[in-house]
Amino acid sequence: MSATSPVPAVELRHIYKSFAGTYVLQDVSLAVQPGQIHAVVGHNGAGKSTLMKILQGVHQADAGEILLGGHVLRRPTPSLVRSLGVGMVYQERSLVPTLSGLDNLFLNNEVRGITRRIRRGVEYRQAAEICARLGVSPALLGRRVGEMSAVEQEMLEVAKALRVARRLIILDEPTGPLGGSEVQDLFKVIRATAATGVGVVLITHHLGEVFDIADFVTCLREGRVTLSCPTQQTNIDELITAIVGESSALAQQYASQARQSAATGTGPGEGREVALEVRSLLVPGKLHDVSFEVLPGEIVGLVGLAGSGRSTLLKVLYGDIRPAAGEVRLFGRPVRPGHPADAIRRGIYLIPEDRAVHGLVLSSAIVENVALSVLDRLRSWGVLRMSRARRRTRSAMQQLGIRAKGPDQVVSELSGGNQQKVVIAKAVQTDARLLLLDEPTFGVDIGASRDVARYVHEFVAAGNAALWVSSDLHELLTVADRILVLSDGTIQESIGRGTPEFDESTILAKMQRRSQLAAAHAQALPAGG
Amino acid sequence: MSSGESGHPGTLTPAPPQAGARHGTEEPEPVPAAWEAGGSSPFRSWLRQTTSKTLHGENAGLLVIVLVAFVGIFAIVLNHTSFFSTTNLVSIVNTTCADSVMAVPLVFVICAGEIDLSFAYVIPVAAYVAAILMPTHGVVIAVLAALGLGFGVGLINGIVTVGLNIPSFVVTLGMLGFLSGYAEVIANDATLSVSNRAYIRIFGQGHVGPISVTVFWTLGAVLLGVYVLGYTRAGRQVLATGGNAAAARFSGIKTKRVRVLVFIFAGLGGALGGLIYLGQYTTATATLGGSSDLLNVLAAVIIGGTALTGGRGSVVGALVGSLLLGVIGNALVILGVSSPEELMAEGAIIIATVVISSRRGSRRGGQSGVAQSIAHFVRRGRPQELQARP
Fold it and tell me: CB distance A149–B3 less than 8 Å?
């Protein structure tokens, strides 16, 4: 729905930017029309965030022009750009959890009366108007942000940016923490925003989204624009090629690999011992009667809406939560880990959802992180041998393709994808037989995502098993041999690859809570794709 | 309603159409009266909102009930004593005045995500400074000097904490030690009296009609605190700094400045507490203030619902907490409990309070506080109501 107005809301012309002698952006040009939803895709490190920072005035370009509404911006600063109507929703949340939605919306920008008193009545009116524009209930304004769900917080972030954004709103990975139907809700809001004439820049790793909602797509690779056209004129293969620069055949490869192993039985086989058997798991309030099996050589996907208990299930298997009832068997032997240490010892390893919090010590080096779970094995005469750790780390870095200066580089300096690979390297050390993955490709660029998928395939091919939790149904459909649908606290169904139900819209429908199915009957099912 | 819930269509669809929609108009939903500064029957809607908040433990309402309950219980149990006499109840207000006044800036400090352990030791130093200067330089200079001292202590606390990036716990702990020693140095083993009648009347023992001047100090500090914290941009900035410093910074708040300022307020609070004590006892001693005030004030703030994690707090709650501790302490004294035993009892109460407060704290977005815990306990049998919160 791009306007045919000749004056773009925002235009970047021939931007060049270098840091310390290396060019990060070369001859990048981008135009966003008013009311256009413009997706920007590319590797981490391809220059997307630098480009956005230049647009916001955080960095100054070496050469090139920035135009807002046709007028050249001479020396953009963040406050100037904000005052000219450019708003941004950051990847990291910018909300204060202890304050209400209304207070957050007007944070540091409150409407004040003569006595410096905040005029909440006036604020509410303004905010309610924005909420109406977005199709969001104004009840959100009175509640504390800390009590809101991820999607509600996301809506509030959009509303907050919208207050400033008369011309352009930039959304950086907004769908990261959201599940299937929540993404659609956010898209409704984005479309409503664009409909009011505001340009939308959507930075995303989820290529399916690009074709779902964007009118225009620009792709960056290593600082250059490799593709820039209306989304109707391209397809996902072309997009992948533009991002990674290789033939898209590679993208199909994993899908066919999985199909192959399913067909010939070299993967998940019949009559083999079951790798993971879960019976009647009960966690009060979250899971009741969860039962399923994972065979060796299988990657089993697990989907469910936020709150369905996916992370809880993984935490039970990992020993972080004790189930009230139920049985878990790993390769036939019962396991009841009371602590992750028990789980690791039995050969179960969890790649956690929030790697910054649960997966890595960000202030430490790669080698220290990789060694974390196997410190015992690196000791000799009671002393920790870092040389052993370094050797293992180096080979892991090579095996997984971790791009860093060396094993001593501090993990916080790595990109999201490389950080995730460090977490996997940590897992590799422990001779795990069951890998639990919780949103492993969240915040990870496509190249690293494929490396992760490739590694997990190799892992299970060696006779191990993997349980992969993800909100990205598209990704699971590529990677998994079977998908378990978790909702209402139990496994509703197990859908195998090759069966007719193994597609996005069917599975999305099955993920809905039964209590809401009645409402869903009245509406159309969310479109897949 | 847990924060992990998603896909509740009700939250995201536009609010159900009200009266206007029956006529097919697109009237925006009227601003709920609670948000209005004025408007029709604001009192009634305020009453409704406050009652609802009280029942959910959102404000200090339940604490007030607890306070009244305690007073009632003691009145009955200590029927034969002078507990429930006007004189005694007034004396409770008087003795808790300084702590209540000092609790207000502490609420701000903790809301900002910091802590100050040194304010209680500003008391003796400020008292001595005022006492020393008063005979020669008059009341005004003496008071200003004492406040200036508080300001300076707070400034140092703030600059060291924020500028050198050292945890406030450590910095104010060091300042505590410094001040406590310094108080003895200044005192030089002597106590110092003040006899300036104007001073004594303003800061300690005066009356406006039947009402003691301490009531005015307490109410004034509390009202000012409530206003600034809840109704001004500065208050939002403090809460944001403590609730999510990164988000505050993204919104353009100068968090470093905010943090330094709250320390300055705490220092000023300590100095004011010293001036009040000086007015009440008319004598500056090296043992003024100190650990018991530290304990009482911090306990009052926590009981009152200010989370130690920052970002949320209640000035009214701190006042009620302070009064509660005063009532309990008073009753214990009347019962003949010795001073050390009273201290033990207070310590136990503080631990119990923190435990009760934190049991709910870890679950949802940082909800904590005695009031919330009581509400939760009472409502345990009716979980649906918790879910149905608008």
Answer: yes
What are A472's two structure tokens? 């990205």
Nearest residue to A33 via CA among A211, A231, A198, A220: A198
For A44-58, the pLDDT digits (tens) are 667 787 888 888 877
Give the best-scoring range by mean pLDDT among A188-202, A383-397, B212-226.
Answer: B212-226
List alpha helices for chain B, DSSP H: 9-12, 42-55, 61-77, 86-111, 119-158, 168-187, 197-200, 213-231, 233-243, 245-250, 255-281, 291-303, 315-334, 339-361, 370-379, 383-387
- Chain centre distance of CA B199: 26
Residue B81 pLDDT: 79
Helix, strand, coil proportions of chain A in percent (round to 5)? 40, 25, 35
Backbone CA torsion sign across A476, A478, A484, A488? positive
Mutate to test the interface with A, among B244, B360, B367 (most CBs of A within 10 A): B244
Q: Which CATH superfamily is domain A251-347+432-522 in?
A: P-loop containing nucleotide triphosphate hydrolases (3.40.50.300)
- Collect all residues with Cβ–Cβ distance below 8 Å to B373 and sequence separation of at least 6: B57, B356, B357, B359, B360
Q: What is the pLDDT of residues A61-74, one digit of tens each?
A: 888 889 888 888 88
User: For residue B159, what is the DSSP state?
Assistant: I
Quote the minimal CA–CA distance from B256 to chain A in Å: 15
- Minimal CA separation from A469 to chain B, in Å: 16
For chain A, give the number of residues.
Answer: 529
The separation between CA A157 and the C-alpha centre of its own chain, rounded to angstroms, equals 17
A512, closest residue in chain B (CA to CA): B7
Q: Which residues of B touch A128 (CB under 8 A)?
A: 28-29, 31
Class of the domain covering A10-247: alpha beta
CATH class of the domain comprising B57-381: mainly alpha
What is the distance of C-alpha A40 from the center of its chain?
Answer: 15
Hey, are the CB atoms on A137 and B15 less than 8 Å from each other?
Answer: yes
- Threshold 0.95, pTM exceeds: no
| Count, residues in chain B | 390
The token pair that represents B303 in the structure block: 């009981």
A77 lies within 8 A of chain B by CB = no
Q: Do A103 and B236 touch (CB under 8 A)?
A: yes
Q: Domain coordinates of chain B in residue numbers?
A: 57-381
Inter-chain contacts counted by CB atoms under 8 A, chains A and B: 159
Kindly report each contact of residues B77-81 with a partner whose C-beta sits within 8 Å and lies 24 or more positions away, as own/partner.
Answer: B78/B331, B78/B334, B78/B335, B81/B334
Confirm if B316 and B60 have CB atoms less than 8 A apart: yes
Complex ipTM tops 0.95:
no
Q: Cα dihedral angle (A266, A268, A274, A277), rounded to 10 degrees?
A: 160
Residues of A in contact with B310 (CB under 8 A): 98
* Pairwise CA distance, residues A208 & A475, whole Å: 10
Q: What angle do CA B32, B38, B39 make, to 5 degrees?
A: 60
Q: Which residues of A touch B36 (CB under 8 A)?
A: 121
Q: Is A192 in contact with A225 (CB distance < 8 Å)?
A: no
Rounded alpha-carbon distances, angstroms, from residue B332 to B335, B340, B384? 5, 11, 41
